[in-house]
Design goal:
Distance between the termini: 33 Å
Helix content: 25-40%
Structural class: alpha+beta
Oligomer: single chain
Largest sheet: 4 strands, mixed
Order of helices and strands: EHEEHEEEHEHEEHEEHHEEHHH
Strand content: 15-25%
Number of strands: 13
Strand order of the largest sheet: 1-8-9-10
Mean pLDDT: 93
Length: about 400
């Protein structure tokens, strides 16, 4: 299609599903930060939230002080996350909500399959397929619709936390529909923002507050027809958060990745330590795709990796450059094998993943984020570009 409209959505840090992702990832960070050997920490943690309740379940493994499960500490982690988001509603308050913890030790069958291969050749923590994607249509090498959707909610959040806007709540969703011509974004067709608010605010007041923010995040010179900007289209959004809608870990996997532009392997990221290739494999795939595009190998590429539980090497590597490269795909795959580590232990070392960096990833997407000195989001770094360029000359 030479001309089309593509739409992606994002959700805020106060969306019920994102509350769960943050709690689950905060528990991952806790185990990585307090394990004597973080590489051996194992977490597969699921969270559910509803009216004034948090349920935490899953499997964990730690050493030293983490050899037994400290329910008091886990409960405090959950309360701290909810407090940091700003929930102090009668129906969901960080200080008064009930926290039900049902964590237990990791299955020995799983640990046997992952650990038995040896420290340097440890097997994948699960079977599965993971996708990475990059495109030159934005400076972050991300699809524009999802990048704008994230940026709008991030900007509103920053203004809300700094008290620059009053009366808006932490629960929100955004959606951008972008017009493409010849596979390039050329304009915005429509924008949707649904955001929680206090009862005294009228819809016109909310529009006047957020319209300047919407214009601020659009590319320079772009405008959206006012009739195509939908702010709280149902009319009201007073009842938000877990009281309005229950939340679960891992239910926003497309928001977390590329906004539906490329396939998704189906595995969520949050609540999983980096031995789970659902997470580390997807990070590696993004790292590879981004460096390939930045090196000029292709204008756009989708990479698939596939793993078997207990087996170190991926069983397949598939690359699609979307007719945007003059280089043979087999040659590019050979370059990938030469330049990048693809075994779970190698990925963890290459990207330094055995660190408590994951709660920051759990809202506003895992990709296209600022590196912050590569302390966080190390899969966004472009340190392999020159090496790739030398191999394609």
């Amino acid at each position: 299609m030479k001309e089309f409209i593509f739409t992606s959505e994002s959700v805020s840090e106060g969306h019920p599903d994102k509350i769960c992702d943050q709690i689950s990832d905060a528990i991952v960070d806790y185990y990585l930060a307090h394990s004597a050997t973080p590489e051996n920490a194992r977490v597969a943690c699921e969270t559910m939230v509803t009216t004034n309740k948090v349920f935490i379940a899953g499997e964990v493994r730690g050493d030293g002080e983490l050899s037994s499960i400290n329910k008091n500490k886990i409960e405090q982690i959950a309360r701290d996350v909810v407090k940091s988001i700003g929930y102090e509603q009668n129906t969901f308050h960080w200080n008064s909500l009930d926290v039900d913890i049902n964590l237990h030790s990791q299955s020995p069958d799983i640990s046997m399959g992952v650990d038995a291969v040896g420290k340097n050749e440890e097997g994948a923590g699960d079977q599965g397929i993971m996708f990475g994607y990059a495109t030159d249509e934005t400076k972050e090498l991300m699809p524009l619709p999802i990048q704008l959707s994230h940026e709008l909610l991030k900007t509103i959040r920053d203004s809300r936390l700094k008290s620059k806007i009053i009366g808006l709540g932490p629960d929100a969703k955004s959606q951008f529909s972008i017009i493409y011509e010849n596979n390039k974004p050329v304009g915005v067709h429509s924008i949707v923002l649904s955001i929680q608010h206090l009862s005294y605010l009228k819809n016109d007041e909310i529009k006047q507050t957020v319209l300047p923010i919407i214009q601020k995040v659009l590319p320079e010179g772009w405008k959206c027809p006012e009739d195509n900007i939908f702010i709280n289209p149902t009319g009201r959004f007073e009842i938000g958060g877990p009281h309005g809608d229950a939340g679960l870990t891992g239910r926003k996997i497309v928001v977390d990745t590329y906004g539906g532009v490329c396939p998704h392997g189906g595995g969520a990221f949050s609540g999983k330590d980096p031995s789970k290739v659902d997470r580390s494999g997807a990070y590696a795939a993004r790292y590879i795709a981004k460096n390939l595009v930045a090196a000029g190998v292709a204008k756009k590429c989708t990479l698939q990796l596939a793993y078997v539980i207990g087996v170190a090497d991926p069983v397949s590597i598939f690359l699609d450059t979307h007719n945007s490269s003059d280089i043979d795909r087999k040659e590019i795959v050979d370059i990938i094998k030469k330049v990048f580590e693809l075994k779970p232990a190698g990925i963890r070392k290459m990207l330094d993943l055995a660190r408590p960096i994951y709660q920051k990833t759990s809202f506003f997407g895992h990709f296209g984020r600022e590196e912050e000195g590569v302390k966080y989001f190390p899969w966004e770094k472009l340190d392999k570009v020159e090496e790739i360029k030398k191999l394609i000359q």
